[in-house]
Specification:
heterotrimer, A mainly alpha, B alpha/beta, C mainly alpha, A: mainly alpha, 2 domains, 13 helices, flat, B: alpha/beta, D-Maltodextrin-Binding Protein, domain 2, 9-stranded mixed β-sheet, 3-stranded mixed β-sheet, 18% strand
Chain lengths: 348, 365, 312
């Protein structure tokens, strides 16, 4: 038996790419890309960002693979791509918002929000969207009042009680309804309510058309959210002797509340911006119509759509201001809803 | 801006108030607003109260908006709601009874008129305005363009493919034209404007333009855009593009407008007088279903000009609404015509206007 | 007390059943309505409705069919999904797994804000902002990737193409898929994540092992909702597309049309046959949505069945 030779101490830690190394890599890639852009016919800020991004990711992955090993390299690559995904997701929002603010900011003002289009001529730089704001609020309010309770209850049925054929058909038809073109919802309400029941154009008819669009989204989203609630919660509640309906109302719904809010908010946001179903139901009106149950009414998407089609800039500016108002209203609704449900959430 | 708006509104109110008082005393007076144009009151304006709804042509929408503004200013208690949903949809709504009057760039088809008659009795076509269809183009370095009917048809048929083609050179002797390929832009939605333009091409160049006439045709070339605003935006974005739209869109966008050769051989721009001159040569039957003349002999006439109609029942079912409708139409075809030029429409020629006024008078309300 | 309990349960169950019934009746009524209104068009066109590409129902002779429209609808939706699924799921993962809690919540709200933008604004933004700027990308794709028939562009003009429409659809679908994916990922028990990490998995391996597998069903549900939006989007696509009737895979070429956009574009000026034909095309869209949803539900069911069996 020989004496084991002492070898130099080996670190048990793998070599890693520290932050400093990464920064160095980034700077080097940046300079190389700059050089590339100077020499070749490539130009433009957007192109530069794209090329730099691709180059940096490749360089980082290669370096990581060489120094840190395969698993860590894959990890870095994946995480970088995820960060890229979120940046890519936020980019169009910023692009749309900045563009809308840029074009709508000049026309938006207190008078825009408080005046109607009554008595405004085609070349006049006055008028506003007050009547449209009221119309949208009333129509979306009616649509929500109809479709949220029904949709939620239907989703509860499908998830909690639905084992048989009936539940299958409800699920099936809800899936089909999610693809309904918005204009067809308007056509349907037009044929049944406006013409069939001789009610004529009204904000209520628009609300009905919007609720036809909202309903499947509410049902589907709520269904997914309710399915996520772990069965253990339900079983624990039954174990305590709580009746089924009470379990659903007091345990399952609060557990799913943040997801349900998200689903409902998605549905509301979607229908608030729909134009096509309003054309044949609300029809449009230049003056204020406070009663949504009788007579044509305006709405913000209609307003934007009609003003944007004008030949004159004064109208197009109003269209963008209306678009900005619409986004702001939905934003307010979303924030309000989140604040309301924050108190009810079970700690997860 | 708020203060200026308030001042402007106050000014208008004051002046209109004075005008109303003055007309009540039987004198003729002028009224004006802070911006935009208004008609001059040459006679008393008959007023009525209530709310009426109309739907139809987008072609007439701009001037209808002006008429509504001025009429409502003169007649408090009157509310007119007009939505430009398209001529076809307007007729559908009129026939369904959901609106009190329709507006269309084309006369009702026989089956449509029969359906309307079954519902509410005889139908009147009231030509209340006219306008030209401008050929707008975007070509760097070129501001004036002359096009003969055959060249125009060739461009939209796809046989004339570049801007320096021999046909275009022949129309524009002496001009330097680039070799940019021509990018045609047409309407993607059904449209009365398309109907008018294709009817024109079918009438003047049937051998070159073979796709027929209609609100929607199988365009041999080019891309589509929604609405005249869409066509104008698309033309504006592409160098070498050409499209068709109402004059107001072409003027508002700063694009070049082509001068079109008429039957007498002169190249004419779509100004209000040129459109009115073409309209004066149209065939006007007793029921006012005007057939436009796409080959006007007048040297000043712009050939791509069309009238547009309001469609009403001769005896409206609701008496009160009928009164308001009659008063509004009477205003539109009389005092309202003075607003036409400022908004790029043509005022009705005198002879036609008299016939139209008589038709409005005949509404039993 | 037990009688009250049973009564409470019964009433509640009946109420939810009633809600399900309302949903069923509504959709049945819509289906009946559509079929009734579509029949006149089918009488005129016959079976040619499914093979004819052009759309001229009010012309003489009438010639209309849904072939090009259905193709365009599916193509645009598939393209949009291909773009949106990695971005939305990736963003949702980044928000729930990578970002510190507050930043994650804010980023989530930011992405949700995309749902607040009205469709007409997307259409207008598409025309005025996106399409001119996409020309550069489209020209690059057509020049360097034209060996792939998808990206070759024989017309050499760029503008309102199916690709542009698909990008706009992707942006509109993004908040739906991302929001639902986010909720689904959040519901994964923290314990599962910690177990994976404790075993020495890297972050990404943890995500792959603990977060993604139980979330498949929910995420697919979100994708289906997003697909519904992509298939049925009317106004934005109507504004952005170049509206030609052809069947081609050259997505960079101007043109293309979808069923929903076609309805929006043509309905205003359509005659009686035209309106009926448009509604008939709406029925075809229903069928397409149905087929896709059923396929998705089957896939999810099969994959969860495998994992359920494996768990046993």
């Amino acid at each position: 038996m020989s004496v084991a030779t002492l070898t130099a101490p080996v670190s048990l830690r793998r070599p890693t790419l520290g932050r400093g190394h990464l920064l160095l890599l980034a700077a080097a890639t940046f300079l190389v890309t700059l050089g590339l852009f100077a020499v070749t016919p490539l130009n433009g800020v957007a192109d530069f960002i794209v090329v730099f991004g691709v180059a940096y990711v490749s360089v980082q992955t290669a370096a990581s693979y060489a120094i840190e090993g395969g698993r860590v390299a894959r990890n870095r690559l994946a995480l970088t791509l995820l960060v890229g995904a979120v940046v890519l997701a936020v980019l169009p929002l910023l692009a749309v918002l900045v563009y809308t603010i840029g074009r709508g900011g000049k026309a938006i003002s207190g008078s825009f929000l408080s005046q109607t289009m009554r008595g405004v001529g085609p070349l006049d730089n006055s008028g506003g969207a007050y009547h449209s704001i009221i119309g949208t609020v009333e129509q979306v309010g009616l649509a929500s009042a109809i479709s949220i309770p029904i949709g939620l209850l239907a989703a509860i049925y499908v998830v909690e009680y639905g084992r048989g054929r009936f539940a299958f058909w409800v699920r099936f038809f809800v899936d089909v309804m999610t693809g309904l073109p918005s204009i067809v919802a308007g056509l349907f309400v037009y044929a049944f309510l406006v013409i069939g029941l001789h009610q004529g154009f009204s904000g209520f008819a628009a609300g009905m058309a919007l609720s036809v669009l909202m309903l499947p989204v509410v049902v589907r989203a709520s269904e997914e959210m309710l399915k996520l609630v772990p069965n253990e919660l339900r079983e624990a509640s039954y174990g305590l002797g709580i009746p089924r309906w009470r379990t659903i109302v007091s345990v399952v719904l609060p557990a799913a509340s943040s997801g349900l809010t998200t689903g409902v908010m998605l549905a509301i946001a979607r229908v608030t911006g729909e134009t096509a179903p309003l054309l044949l139901t609300a029809f449009g009106f230049d003056s204020l119509r406070s009663n949504p149950f009788h007579g044509p009414q305006s709405a913000l998407p209609l307003y934007v759509f009609q003003q944007a089609g004008s030949a004159f800039d004064v109208a197009v500016n109003r269209a963008w201001a209306g678009a900005l108002t619409l986004i702001a209203i939905v934003l307010l609704l979303t924030v309000a809803a989140r604040l309301l449900t924050r108190r009810n959430r079970l700690a997860t | 801006m708020r203060l200026r708006n308030r001042l402007g509104t106050g000014l208008v109110a004051a002046i209109v108030g004075v005008a109303l008082v003055a007309t009540a005393c039987g004198k003729s007076s002028k009224s004006s607003s802070s911006n935009g144009t208004t008609g001059t009151t040459t006679a008393q304006v008959a007023c009525a109260t209530g709310t009426i709804t109309g739907a139809g042509s987008t072609f007439v929408q701009t001037i209808a908006q002006q008429w509504i503004k001025d009429f409502q200013a003169k007649c408090s208690g009157a509310t007119i709601n007009y939505q430009g949903v398209g001529s076809g949809a307007g007729i559908t709504q009129f026939n369904a009874g959901t609106v009190d009057f329709g507006a269309s760039d084309a006369v009702m088809k026989p089956e449509e008129e029969a359906a309307a008659k079954a519902k509410g009795g005889d139908v009147l076509h009231i030509p209340w305005s006219a306008g030209g269809i401008a050929i707008e183009f975007h070509l760097s370095g070129v501001t004036d363009l002359k096009l003969s009917p055959d060249t125009l048809a060739g461009i939209f048929a796809g046989t004339v493919k570049t801007w320096n083609a021999s046909e275009i050179k022949a129309d524009n002797s002496g001009a330097s034209l680039p070799s940019t390929p021509i990018q045609v832009v047409h309407r993607s939605d059904g449209s009365g404007t398309t109907n008018a333009f294709t009817s024109y091409m079918t009438a003047v160049s049937p051998t070159i333009w073979k796709a027929g006439a209609g609100k929607d045709v199988p365009w041999p070339t080019g891309q589509g855009a929604k609405g005249s605003d869409g066509v104008t935006a698309a033309v504006k974005q592409t160098d070498g593009a050409i499209g068709y739209a109402e004059v107001s869109y072409a003027k508002g966008s700063g694009l070049g407008i082509a001068s079109i050769k008429n039957a007498s051989g002169s190249y004419v721009q779509p100004d209000a007088d040129a459109v009115a001159a073409a309209l004066a040569e149209a065939t006007v039957p007793a029921d006012l279903k005007i057939v436009p003349n796409f080959k006007p002999a007048d040297a000043k006439a712009y050939p791509i000009s069309i009238p547009t109609w309001a469609i009403v029942f001769a005896k409206p079912a609701d008496a009160a609404k009928g009164k308001l409708l009659k008063a509004f139409l009477a205003y539109a075809v009389d005092q309202g015509q003075s607003a036409a030029k400022g908004l790029y429409y043509a005022p009705l020629p005198k002879d036609l206007q008299d016939k139209v006024k008589a038709a409005v008078e005949s509404i039993q309300a | 007390m037990s009688r009250d309990v049973r009564l409470g349960d019964r009433i509640f169950r009946r109420v939810t059943e009633a809600a399900g019934l309302v949903v069923l009746v509504t959709i049945a009524a819509i289906a009946v309505f559509l079929v009734a209104k579509a029949v006149p068009a089918f009488r005129v066109s016959g079976w040619g409705f499914f093979s004819e590409k052009q759309w001229f129902p009010d012309a003489t002779p009438t010639k209309f069919g849904v072939a090009a429209l259905a193709f365009g609808t599916v193509l645009a939706a598939v393209l949009a999904l291909v773009i949106v699924i990695p971005v939305a799921v990736g963003a949702a993962l980044a928000v729930t797994e990578l970002a510190p809690k507050r930043l994650g919540t804010w980023l989530g709200h930011l992405i949700d804000l995309l749902a607040a933008v009205p469709s007409v604004v997307f259409g207008l933004w598409g025309i005025f902002f996106l399409i001119p700027r996409m020309k550069g990308l489209e020209m690059w794709l057509a020049r360097y990737l034209d060996f792939i028939p998808l990206f070759s562009n024989p017309s050499h003009t760029f503008g309102k193409s199916v690709f542009a429409a698909a990008v706009v659809l992707a942006i509109m679908t993004l908040p739906i898929v991302a929001a639902i994916a986010r909720e689904v990922f959040r519901q994964v028990p923290q314990g599962n994540r910690e177990a994976a990490l404790a075993l020495g998995a890297t972050r990404w391996e943890m995500i792959r092992m603990a977060v993604l597998p139980p979330s498949k069903g929910g995420v697919v549900g979100g994708i289906m909702l997003g697909l519904g939006r992509a298939l049925g989007e009317t106004i934005a696509v109507a504004l952005v597309l170049g509206a030609t009737y052809g069947i081609t895979f050259h997505v960079l070429q101007p043109g293309g049309n979808t069923i929903a956009a076609n309805i929006a574009l043509k309905f205003g000026e359509a005659g009686a046959t035209g309106r009926s034909a448009l509604i008939a095309s709406g029925l075809v869209l229903f069928a397409i949505t149905l087929a896709v949803n059923m396929a998705a539900r089957t896939i999810v069911y099969r994959s969860t069945r495998v994992s359920r069996e494996a768990a046993v």
